[in-house]
Design brief:
single chain; 497 residues; alpha+beta; 7-stranded antiparallel β-sheet; two-stranded antiparallel ribbon; 13 strands; 43% helix; globular; nucleotide-binding; EC 2.7.7.-; SelO; Protein nucleotidyltransferase YdiU; magnesium ion binding
Amino acid sequence: MNDFKVDNSLARLGKPFSEASMPTVVPAPQWIAFNSSLAQQLQLPEQYWQTDAGLNLFSGNNLPEWATPAAHAYAGHQFGHFVPQLGDGRALLLAEVIDRDGKRVDMQLKGAGTTPFSRRGDGRSPLGPVLREYLISEAMHALGIPSTRALAAVITGDWVQRDTAEPGAILTRIASSHIRVGSFQYIAHRGANHQAQNGEQTELKTFADYVIKRHYPECLSQANPYLAFLTAVIDNQAKLIANWMSIGFIHGVMNTDNMTISGETIDYGPCAFMDSFNPAQVYSYIDSQGRYAWGNQPKIASWNLARFAETLLPLIAEQREQAIELASAAVQSFGQRNEAYFLQLMAKKIGLQQVTADDEGLIAGFLQLLHSNTVDFSQGFRLLSQSVTDSNSGTITLMTDKAAWQHWASAWQQRLAVQGLDLSQVQANMDATNPAIIPRNHIIAKVIQQATTDGDLRLFNQLKQALATPFELKPDDAFLAAPPSDKEQIKNTFCGT
């Protein structure tokens, strides 16, 4: 325990930022998975590594003295509609761990029973969503995209009633923090009511100062720390959304309570990776209007950040008009930032080291080819490295319009030649950028089906191992990387709450 360092700074803030709550005891916990490499990073004592003590910890049945369980309070715009109180209805922050690099991270149980914010919910999680989040969050990490992580997953030994009765499970999630745009909306909404009575914004300033010190301490030295804070969050989110877009990831439920202040991906509910490329692609069953489609994600992120900016107005400037002007300029910078990050990432995917003004058309042209030829997004990019030296191999095999492909490929190969790089190195760079394997919808569905009906975790374990090295593919894992057949295609994904 000497190297294992914990703190509980958010819990110490107390109400209204969080409320103490204990997990509900479960009858017969059993291991699903344990992330030993992450445990090493956290310097978690080995007494919790796939042991009975670990089962007690990660099921919430018997918490050690260093845990101070608390549910975090937040509000949120859900599909554009403001809900003034949401909060952790099925999750509990156990502690903040200081990892071996000195970084502070949250350790949270997800699916641990009712909390003060559960409303009419049971606070539980079915097995399927736990398996989904474990696999996809760890895949995102392996792809180099900021994300919450999965430390452990356990079956609870009881049943969770959704459309049908499903095995219950608990995920132990690690994050830089679980503070969201909705966290600030909750405090600001309370503050607006309180200010009307007392003319103060004490809670908002306390919370903002805490978050800045924790996540963006460099802002403290700025002339306007709160404006600098807003700008830093905007920039991190611009990078994050660009990363999502570059791998065909669709979050599916980009409500303000699902957007972190740290710039990490959080809450893998109805998320999915695109198969055939379509900018209007939606998988989430509840997103009937396509609000959170792949191509809409930058616009929605900007909208969410405008809601975040609104919460900080009283801190940015004393005069509201001046605060609005400053905050608006910051939010308006999101589009340019996001587009620049996206173009850099996409240029890399087609083998370009530096992006120029003319490259935007080249990138758009390739995406249009993928769309018009109904080409799988990930496979289309992965095979492109084979086309570097021969336009008659690689991605052309996926195209129906060969003439359009050849027209684009000719311009692309000319652009590659201008770089003056060895083409074998270009190919190697592309293969280290475009993943061979992603957590495909139809494979995830098979994992969940086998685990929930037969208790069979073999496919889960095989996929978990393969996703840890997404730019490499072993022959035995080839079926995991293949796009779905017509019969295997998944049209809808579900939240699982």
